[in-house]
Each structure stands twice: as structure tokens, then as C-alpha cells.
Amino acid sequence: MKLEKLDYDFYHQDVLHVAPGLIGKYLVRRFEDGQILRSIITEVEAYRGEEDLGCHASKGRTPRTEIMYHAGGVIYVYLIYGMHWMLNFVSGQENIPQAVLIRGLEDIWGPGKITRHLKIDGSFYGSSLVNSGKIWVEDNGIMTEHIAKTRIGIDYAGEIWKNKMWRFILK
Prior knowledge:
Blueprint: E1 4-5, H1 8-11, H2 15-22, E2 26-30, E3 36-48, E4 75-80, E5 84-90, E6 98-105, E7 108-109, H3 111-118, E8 135-139, E9 146-149, H4 159-162, E10 167-170
Antiparallel strand pairs: 1-8, 2-3, 2-8, 3-6, 3-10, 4-5, 5-6, 6-7, 9-10
């Protein structure tokens, strides 16, 4: 099986193409000691621009969301509840804020558990998914199927936005 690192062309697409496209791919993490962990991405959630009231960018450009306004292929991490880092991959074109939240891996469920297991923290903010030696995504060439469901934990966004079928899960 030939594994290829995803390039910027993949991430520069709209989030509604990138998010389901990540399902079945390998999230790869190289730790400080050289150990490499590969896990299949099983669940993601899309956030699409300033108009999406579930997206952090709906409040506009801030120091926290600045990286979301960069061209796709970089990491957006943020802390919730003062204790859990959330791992997101920025997608799309520059100045059009979009990101994919990584919700599940083959052996880990829950975005906070993922970052804890992979030792991901605020130092990953802005890291390249293409050029980093610490984290990247590989395509194994295997076609997978997924189902779409509503997003989780964004009741504050209102009925329209919380009910978008923008959560994608490996079938």
C-alpha cells in the first residue's frame, strides 16, 4: 500500500469537500522520541465561514481565529473549558475562513481525547500539514464510505446552523 502525504491542493478546496475527503485517511503524528503513530480518521465536522454561526469566524477576524483566514493546509487549535485542545485543519482559500474539526480516529473517540493522546497543544497553532515533520495526513488510496449527520455541541448557533449535515462519519 502506497501512502502519499496530502498536499496543499487538497486543503485549498472548500471545507465541504475536504471534510468528507479526510474520512478514511491516516492522521500521522511523529513524537519527540521519533515514534510514529498512524490512525484512520473516522469522524470530522465542517465549519464554513463567517456566515456559519457555529464557526468561530462568525465573530470575525480575531487573534484566535486569524489562522482560519489563511489558505488551507494549516492547523487551527484552540482550548475549550480551559483543559481540552481541539484539533482543526484549515481548508479553502485565503480570507475565506473554513476548518475541519477532527472528532474521531479509529482508536480514539472525542476531540479532547485525540489531542491528549497525540500530545497536541497550542504550539501546533499555524503548523503546516504539508511541511511539518510532527503531524500530517496520508492518503492510502482506499475509497471509503461515510454518512453525514448534524454537528454536535453548537446549539448556540441556532436551528439552521446546528442542523447542517456537516459531520461526516466513516461507515
